[in-house]
Every structure is written in C-alpha cells, then in structure tokens.
Amino acid sequence: MTTTAPTESEDPPETAAETARHQLDRAASHIDVDPGVVERLKHPKSVHQVSVPIEMDDGEMRIFTGYRAHHDSARGPFKGGLRYHPDVTAEECVGLSMWMTWKCAVMDIPFGGGKGGVVANPKALSERENERLTRRLAEELRDVVGPMRDIPAPDMGTNAQTMAWFMDSYSMQEGESHPGVVTGKPPVIGGSYGREEAPGRSVAVIAREAIDHYDNEIEETTVAIQGFGSVGANAARLLDEFGANVVALADVNGAIRDPDGFDTHDVISHEEQPGMVSGYDAPESLANDELLELDVDVVVPAALGNVLTVDNADDVQADLIVEGANGPTTTRADEIFAERGIPLIPDILANAGGVTVSYFEWLQDINRRAWTLEEVNEELESEMLTAWNDVRGAYTAHDDVTWREAAYIVGLRRVAAAHEVRGLWP
C-alpha cells in the first residue's frame, strides 16, 4: 500500500487551537512580553467533558458528549459561546476559547476566554429534545459556570431560547433567579436588545473604518459576503445603509451576484428562511466558494472557519478582507495574503460586537436596569471605534505586522499585564 504525500498546494491539517497558538507566537515576537506568560497562554486553564443523558421522544435514552473549555481568567470571568454541532471537539473548544481571550482583551472587556459545545445535530432533534439536552447540560456544567465564573452565550446551533432554558435550569438548581449566568437571552428575561445583530453590526462598522483607512469612498466600494445568516445579513444590511454596493451574497446552498448591487433588505437571510438566498431572483448564480474569488473591493467570509486556504488564497481578487466568521483563514492563507499585500482585518476585532453586547447584557443583569436599543447601538459603535483606534495604533507603530498581529499585540499586552500584576499562585 502506498500513500501520497501532500502537495505544496495543500494546507497541512491544523486545528483551531494550533492556529491560535501560531497567531500568539507571531504577536509575541513583536513585543517584549514574559515568555512564561506566553507559554501559559498556549494552554487552557481547564477543559471539562461531560456526559449528557436524555430521553428521546421515542423513549430511547441517548448519551451526548459536551465540553466546556476555560482558557484564561486573568482579566475576569470566562466568556464564550455554547454550540451544538456534530463536529464539536475538545480541541476546537480550546482554540475558540483562546480567540475569546484575545477578543475580550482587544475590546478591553473584563472577561477571559471560554467556549463549549455538545456533539449533536440540533436540526435532527425535536424542540423538546433540544430543551431536555440543554437543561441536563446546565445541570452537568453547574459547578463550572456562573455569573462571576463562566458565562455562556449562543453560538452555532443554539439561540436565545437555548439560553433561556439554560438560565432557567441553573436558576432552579440555585434556588434564585440568575439572569447573568448566560447572555443572548430574550429581553423579557434579562436579555439585551441588539445582541443578535451585534456581531454583524461590528463587522460593518470595522469594514467602514478600514475602507476609510485606505482612503476609499464607501459609496464606491463593492462588497461580497459569504454567509447570509445572522452575522452576514446584518453586516450586509448595515453596509448597504452606509452606502456600500453589496454585489454578491451566499448561503450554504449557493451564491448570487448582481453587479448593480442588491437591496439587502429584500433578500431573506438564511436565518429567516433557509435557502432563500441561493433561490433569490438574481442576474447570476454561482457556487458558494466562488464568491470568495470575485473581483470586488471587499470580501467578508461570514460563514464557517477555514474557507480561505492555501488552495484559494492566490485566487482572491478583493483588495480588503474583513473576517465575519471565527477563524475563516488558515495560517498559510494568512501568510499568502500578507505576501500579496492584501490587508485582512481579523475576526477578534471585526466580529467582537457579539461579546461586547454580551458584556452590556451582563451589566444590565447585574444592575437590574435595561438599556434601549438606541443606547446599545450607540455604546457598541463607541466601543468598536475605540478598539479600532487601538489596533490601528499598533498597526501603524510596527512596520512589519499584519492587522491580525496588531490586534494580537493589543490583546496580548493587556492579558500579559494582568498576569504580571496578579502573579503566579504557588
């Protein structure tokens, strides 16, 4: 039996955690930071694995596996999403929790990084099965989550209802209501207005600022967005309102293109009704991955991770990439874009609106005072502009760094400073 060695055009297999560690090393090489702190930050503080038994609707008992990764809490409680997906792994949760640490630090939010998930396909479960899964998971994780310990939020395969079930279950076991144990809840039980739209809003705001940074007019900018779900649709619609020309959109089933631009409010998002993007009456239809290679000014990968790879990085024609999804670019693709001089604004800055409004929600829960949607959006824009200016300052201060490295420099400095001040517990 013979095996074929990978060709140079292939990306070597890389987990989210490996990618995050490579990014950490590159940022650390540009600043003076204690090597011991860097080494600590390459490893999670803990990873919890739980078995989640539930009774299915047909009476059968099934065991699901769940994970919760805690990366770092030097700056505050762990914070991060909870996803239900068949491909969830402990290593993936570790990598995503590391990105949450940097994201919170870049935004200067007093949280650390956490992430979790259950190996399950929520679309194959009934609503009652999803509820039973969530309630039992809340019990299994009760000792490691809490408003001052670890605060989950919606992610792939979960939503506001999931968070409501989780919060209710935790509160029942604790004997009192704890709305701050999760964020992304419905407003009627302590959720924040604007939370669901926040990641897409922040992508649009940061894209607008990046377009301006490179002395381009947003009214003359063409944009392609892969992933017209919660993040992509909200980013597209706000960019449309800013004056950008959104010429291509995609969902999981395919992509559409109109050189004259779409009325993005007329296109139904994948979240609102699956399949309506690729089924929209547009001048041109194309494959989902072809959208990434269109000749546009800005491309926004806002769907899945690892969609920009060594196999297509040389074919990307956009002048600017703004990451809407978490981890859409592999390490080697990152290097290719840097070599080609294509600026890439990283996820830990661009889509940080989600965790920022989660922080607002947490504050509202603690203080028992709700904010209006206008207050949330105004505060979000202010926080995003502050973070943009911090990262832009690091980018311009170092001649040889990418935007991703600049964001990591900002985040790493803050996390390292917290570790140095707190010291090491014996």
Structure description:
It is a single chain. The strands form two sheets. The chain has a seven-stranded mixed β-sheet with strand order 9-8-7-6-10-11-12. Helix 3 (90-106) links the parallel strand 3 and strand 4. Mean pLDDT is 92; it is low at 1-9. The protein is of the alpha/beta class. Helix 3 crosses helix 12 (403-422) and helix 11 crosses helix 12 (403-422). The chain has twelve helices and twelve strands. The active site is at 115 (proton donor). One of its GO terms (biological process) is L-glutamate catabolic process. This is Glutamate dehydrogenase. The record marks 155 as: Important for catalysis.
**Broad structural category:** alpha/beta
The CATH architecture of the domain at 198-347? 3-Layer(aba) Sandwich
User: Which sequence of strands runs across the widest sheet?
Assistant: 9-8-7-6-10-11-12
| SSE series | HHEEEHEHEHHEHEEEEEHEHHHH
For the secondary structure, the number of strands is: 12
The termini sit apart by: 53 Å
The number of helices is 12
Ranges where pLDDT stays below 50 over 5 or more residues in a row are: 1-9
Keywords: Oxidoreductase
Protein name: Glutamate dehydrogenase
Family: Belongs to the Glu/Leu/Phe/Val dehydrogenases family.
Pfam families: ELFV_dehydrog (PF00208), ELFV_dehydrog_N (PF02812)
Quick recap of the structure?
InterPro entries: Aminoacid_DH-like_N_sf, Glu/Leu/Phe/Val/Trp_DH, Glu/Leu/Phe/Val/Trp_DH_C, Glu/Leu/Phe/Val/Trp_DH_dimer, Glu/Leu/Phe/Val_DH_AS, Glu_DH, GluDhGdhB, NAD(P)-bd_dom_sf. This protein is α/β, with parallel strands linked by helices and 426 residues long.
